[in-house]
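thought: user wants a sequence for this fold. calling inverse folding tool.
action: design(structure=
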């Protein structure tokens, strides 16, 4: 029996020692690099996550900046055209034509409010044009828009 006690004690002692050393190794592994508690890994993870979230936003911001530049160029071009366009018609005159004259509106479309009417044969000054409509001014100072079908333009 004594002979069995010594090997059993060694087995117990080595098992206990194995558990202790194994536990120390496991605890040491948590403090090693590459774990979640490692500040460098955490920083790297956060940096990567932030980049992944911001990359699409940066692309959208770039598209918006490009669109803003396009709109600014269009506005600039239209401003230049508008300045040129007003002087083109200043010296033109027109005569109202049509069986019952022409309706004078406050904008270049039929959706705009009627501000008056002009009888057939009245001479007017053309001061602007927009999509088939002429902005006119009468000798009495009345201004409005008339559809081009109701005017005969002359120089």
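)
observation: tool returned 155 residues.
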């Amino acid at each position: 029996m004594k002979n069995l006690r010594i090997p059993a004690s060694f087995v117990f002692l080595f098992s206990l020692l194995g558990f202790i050393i194994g536990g120390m190794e496991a605890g040491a592994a948590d403090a090693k690099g590459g774990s979640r508690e490692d500040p460098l890994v955490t920083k790297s993870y956060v940096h990567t996550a932030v980049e992944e979230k911001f990359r699409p936003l940066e692309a959208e911001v770039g598209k918006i900046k490009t669109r803003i530049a396009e709109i600014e160029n269009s506005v600039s071009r239209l401003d230049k055209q508008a300045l040129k366009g007003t002087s083109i018609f200043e010296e033109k005159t027109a005569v109202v034509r049509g069986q019952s004259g022409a309706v004078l509106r406050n904008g270049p479309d039929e959706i705009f409010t009627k501000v008056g009417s002009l009888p057939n044969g009245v001479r007017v000054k053309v001061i602007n044009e927009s999509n088939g409509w002429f902005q006119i001014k009468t000798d009495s100072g009345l201004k409005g828009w008339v559809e081009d079908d109701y005017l005969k333009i002359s120089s």
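thought: summarizing for user.
answer: Here is the designed sequence. The first strand starts at residue 92 and ends at 96.
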